[in-house]
What does this fold into?
Amino acid sequence: MSHTPVNRAAPQTPHQDLHSEQGALRGEHPGRSRNPVIKAADLAWLEFEKPDLDQAEVFARDFGFAIAARTEGELWLRGTFAGSPCMVIRKGGTSRFIGPAFRAAERADLDRLARATGGTVRDIGVPGGGQSVALLDPSGLPVRVVHGTEQLSELPEQEPLILNFGTDHRRTNATQRPPREPSRIQRLGHVVLETSVFARTLDWYLDTLGMIVSDFLFLDGQRERGPTMAFVRCDQGSVAVDHHTLALHLGPGTGYVHSAYQVTDLDAIGAGGEYLTERGYRRSWGIGRHIQGSQLFDYWRDPDHFMLEHFADGDLFSCDLEPGWAPMSASGLAQWGPPVTRDFLGATPSPAKLREVITALRGDNELDPARLLGLMKAMSS
It folds into this structure.
């Protein structure tokens, strides 16, 4: 990718201006695998365990999910779009994230995965059935790849508001009064995971599931050591897909950071946020617009302290766009919006966080004192 400054007459691409400050340097990570086992089509759903399904259902409805199925031991949540459910919460002794499930493009992909990993194709107990292969990523996180699951029919949408722009008057003799109601979830967009073995985990998702990198972030002064965050999308060829379906970042912990769910527009985000505030929930960060991915965002904590995001108007990329590269910083997380919070960054001091850091520094992973100091500096810059 050229590093020549862009002039006003030059054609624009998504990797110029805000999307990415620069392209890759010679010898840097290519952001994709030469010969992946399969190419996953999309993120299917996320799996959690929680001790109180009644409380989980109350929050789910307030956040804007519809209920796909409910039994004594399971709660399946869905959006308005046709397709599979986007979350399953199973009754368990503690609140924890189990792992993501990705959708295979065809049934034969499950056989290829099983042969490559020594796994087994099994029937799965989800509404409508289906089959899956159970995998384990290098972080130790369970990953399921599924096919043949029930495709739910669409539900009524939360219609976008008709907006007036300058002299473009699309609404006359009518007022705007978006109701304070839950931001109706349309679909699952992405999940963000933390790992202390970032490079190995990233390569596993590229090599095993055929995912491709949209953007890399690196630490200031440590670019030669490789990236510390990657925004990764599915590869559907010429079909444009979400800028990231999965994001991975280096850190002392392992597992869930947040998940994101698409809603109709900015008013759905804003009015839904007011509804959540009135219901007593806590905003983690927002409302604003991201840089990598460009989404309008609003982050919330559920009663079990899991972070969930409402988003709208995200970037869509086809397979021919190469990764962008940019330095990691807290101020680089948003084009506009309130200052990023310590809660969103996971930077609130606690004995548990300190133990996590000490354990990671003593472990066989990619987190060393220089990396840790670089991450702390990035999150305060």
Notes: Residues 1-19 have pLDDT under 50 and may be disordered. The helical segments are 53-63, 107-117, 198-209, 266-278, 342-345, 351-362, 369-378. The chain is about 20% helix and 30% strand. The first helix runs from residue 53 to 63.
